[in-house]
């Protein structure tokens, strides 16, 4: 699923302890002009990022082609140079994709690896590509292009998760289950009502990613190092070619802004927190003590010592991975804190947390989509659980209020009914009429409709309520909002 997942490139444990000086004949530094000594071997390795930023190659090449097209349009490259650069970049992309490209850590990063190779392939035209550009606007451009693709993929995955939730909910608008507060049975709800709560959380997450995308989709290209460039660049042209909404308004900000990456990680963290909550519920639901759902075998593991076990490892891992996603957000916030304008090398450290966040979140969303599509609910067990724990006590209180009792008095009467039912080890609907009438003379035969699960559910028949009729309407509205949001429309 993630072919370029090299977030944590392996490095031997003793890598930092054996420095080998670089000879000047090996000097391949593209910026080495004023340097009389070779870079210390340790420093070269310490500062290199190609281990992890090589995964930006496709977006780096896209950005370079757009830049070359613009340089041609404004007359910095002639036609032959332009053709050599564009063909050379296409050839390099082919080499990388076929695994033939020799990444060289001495060339630091993805940008200089590709540029050096271009110059090898096409000569001086390759050296002209960096006119009116800096690695500062280049890396910001690449990262935004890459992240935009990731956001689109995440939004698609969230859309699948949301659709799966609605499909499952549609089958369970009449399935009672206990609703909880403080993890104590509170009031009966339908399983659909619960799934629709998950839906609302994830729909807000999708909106947040869509909003984040708007701030990601701005072009730093042409900002050069920090001040702009003395060449007559056409920033609107490169922005349009790369599908950006507009050029970034201020060059100084554009090369140092990593808000877009932090915002993505913040939205991802909130999404991961939501998924961790769902997964905690799944872990409870699949335990034999609850037995509300069964997960597909393919999503569980057994125990090497306890043959009866079927462990919900995937939900547990999704729950755990929230920690790592939140950690990445924290890493980026601290990375940026106190940085003066504009680009500082600190910013090279943005990539691993960002890449890892996207990879981790996409893995989690894939797992959740599959689990929701394949899990098997057990309506009888849910119903039995809803019948325990006196979950219709509030309905009895509401009933007494309708019979004219003030709510606080009704609350006290119900407490005594519950006491009685608990002592007799029966449900509220099984307490005999004589007992009920001893506790409150206003109670009549019609109370049993109220104490039954169906009566309790049907009574909450308004927008947002758990009644089967309201829930069916909610699913219809949810489907419309899911589709409207697909087109970037209003989803509330
Ligand atoms: N590898 C660098 C990064 O990821 C690219 C930008 C370097 N710019 C510079 N002026 N050293 O941030």
Primary descriptors:
3 domains; two-stranded parallel ribbon; mainly alpha; 492 residues; Ribonucleotide Reductase Protein R1, domain 1; Fumarase C, Chain B, domain 1; 6 strands; elongated; binds arginine; Fumarase C, Chain A, domain 2; disordered N terminus
Distinct ligands, ions and cofactors found in the model: arginine
* Strand line-up in the sheet with most strands: 1-2
Distance between the termini: 33 Å
**In terms of structural class, how would the helical and strand content be classed?**
mainly alpha
- Helix content estimate: 55-70%
Overall shape: elongated
Let me know the number of strands: 6
Tally of separate helices:
20
Q: Which sheet architecture does the biggest sheet show?
A: 2 strands, antiparallel
Which spans have pLDDT < 50 for at least 5 consecutive residues? 1-8
What fold name goes in the CATH topology slot of the largest domain?
Answer: Fumarase C, Chain A, domain 2
CATH 2nd-level architecture of the largest domain: Up-down Bundle
State which percent range the strand residues make up. Answer: under 5%
CATH class of the largest domain: Mainly Alpha
CATH homologous superfamily annotation of the largest domain: Fumarase/aspartase (Central domain)
Secondary-structure element order, N to C: HHHHHHHEEHEHEHHEHHEHHHHHHH
What is the count of structural domains? 3
Task: Kindly report the average pLDDT value.
Answer: 93
Computed over alpha carbons, the radius of gyration is 31 Å
């Amino acid at each position: 699923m993630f072919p370029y997942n090299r977030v944590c490139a392996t490095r031997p444990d003793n890598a930092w302890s054996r420095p080998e000086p670089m000879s000047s004949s090996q000097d391949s530094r593209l910026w080495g002009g004023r340097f009389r000594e070779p870079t210390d071997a340790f420093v070269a390795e310490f500062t290199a990022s190609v281990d992890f930023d090589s995964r930006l190659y496709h977006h780096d090449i896209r950005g370079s082609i757009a830049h070359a097209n613009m340089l041609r349009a404004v007359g910095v490259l002639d036609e032959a140079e332009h053709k050599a650069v564009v063909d050379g970049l296409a050839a390099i992309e082919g080499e990388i994709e076929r695994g033939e490209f020799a990444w060289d850590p001495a060339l630091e990063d993805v940008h200089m690896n590709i540029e050096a190779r271009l110059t090898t392939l096409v000569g001086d035209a390759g050296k002209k590509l960096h006119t009116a550009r800096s690695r500062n606007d280049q890396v910001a451009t690449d990262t935004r292009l890459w992240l935009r693709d990731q956001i689109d993929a995440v939004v698609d995955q969230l859309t699948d998760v949301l659709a799966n939730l609605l499909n499952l909910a549609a089958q369970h608008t009449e399935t009672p289950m206990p609703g909880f507060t403080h993890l104590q049975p509170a009031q009966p709800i339908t399983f659909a009502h619960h799934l629709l709560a998950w839906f609302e959380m994830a729909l807000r997450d999708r909106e947040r990613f869509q909003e984040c995308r708007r701030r990601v989709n701005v072009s730093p290209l042409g900002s050069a190092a920090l001040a702009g460039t003395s060449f007559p660049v056409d920033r609107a042209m490169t922005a349009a070619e790369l599908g950006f909404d507009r050029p970034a308004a201020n060059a100084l900000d554009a090369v140092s802004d990593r808000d877009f990456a932090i915002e993505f990680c913040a939205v991802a963290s909130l999404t991961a927190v939501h998924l961790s909550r769902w997964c905690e519920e799944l872990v409870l639901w699949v335990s034999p003590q609850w037995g509300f759902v069964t997960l597909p075998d393919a999503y569980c593991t057994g125990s090497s010592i306890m043959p009866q076990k079927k462990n919900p490892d995937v939900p547990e891992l999704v729950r755990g991975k929230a920690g790592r996603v939140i950690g990445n957000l924290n890493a980026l916030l601290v990375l940026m804190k106190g940085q003066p304008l504009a680009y500082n090398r600190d910013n090279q450290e943005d990539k691993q947390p960002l890449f890892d966040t996207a990879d981790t979140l996409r893995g989690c969303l894939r797992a959740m989509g599959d689990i929701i599509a394949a899990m098997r609910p057990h309506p009888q067990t849910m119903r039995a659980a809803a019948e325990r724990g006196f979950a219709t006590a509030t309905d009895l209180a509401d009933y007494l209020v309708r019979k004219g009792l003030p709510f606080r008095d009704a609350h006290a009467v119900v407490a005594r009914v519950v006491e009685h039912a608990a002592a007799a080890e029966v449900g509220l609907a099984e307490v005999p009429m004589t007992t009920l009438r001893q506790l409150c003379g206003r109670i009549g035969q019609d109370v049993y409709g109220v104490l039954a699960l169906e009566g309790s559910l049907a009574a909450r028949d308004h927008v947002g309520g758990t009644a089967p009729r309201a829930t069916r309407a909610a699913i219809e509205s949810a489907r419309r909002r899911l589709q409207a949001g697909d087109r970037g429309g209003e989803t509330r």
